[in-house]
Amino acid sequence: MGAFVESVNTGRVRPVPWGSLKRSAIDKRATDARVRVGPYGLDGDEIADLEHHGGLDKAVYAYAAEDLEAWSVEIGRELRAGEFGENLTTRGVDVTGARLGERWRIGTTVLEVCSVRIPCRVFAGFVDQERWVRRFTERGVPGAYLRVIESGELGTGDAVEVTDVPEHRVTVGVMFRALTTERALLPSLLEAPAVAEEARLKAERYVAAAR
Fold first, then answer.
1. pLDDT digits (tens, 9 = 90+) for 131-178
2. In the chain, where are the structural domains located?
3. pTM of the shown model
4. How many CA atoms, within 13 angstroms, populate the side-chain half-sphere of residue 113?
């Protein structure tokens, strides 16, 4: 079987003991229903921290089931779909190797890879692992944020069809390293027209400061 969505996950805002807001919707749960997807994400999926999550460039978060399984081995317990706060748990998709601007047709939607997940205190608290932010960063498999190019519906079992692949080589993995451990890679983000606006501005500031 080719690439497909193994699970569609949504969450509601709930009180949490971590972070400054003390509330989060990171606890995503699988749904068997087909879900409507609009410019700002999945119907029924709430966002607590609008400063750092959500918006057009972070409308949908995808994480590979294969990467969840690798983490399960390291952590020593099974990680369920949605446990990393992802909306789409994919199977057969090289999420880390996806290029910025790559487009995926899923159901009647078209989604575009444009950003990456940066680990935070809420994520660390939810996973409940020591040195989690550092470990997640060192592993370098952050998952991808997707913007919605065409609204529609999607559901568990839908194929993930890659319809457009840009010619540049700026991948999700490269972007993550540029924003975390290898700032010298920041200029490369400017090679990807579809890169999220926040990251593009960081790259432009880096280039300007280096002149």
1. 999 999 999 999 999 999 999 999 999 999 999 999 999 999 999 999
2. 4-210
3. 0.96
4. 34
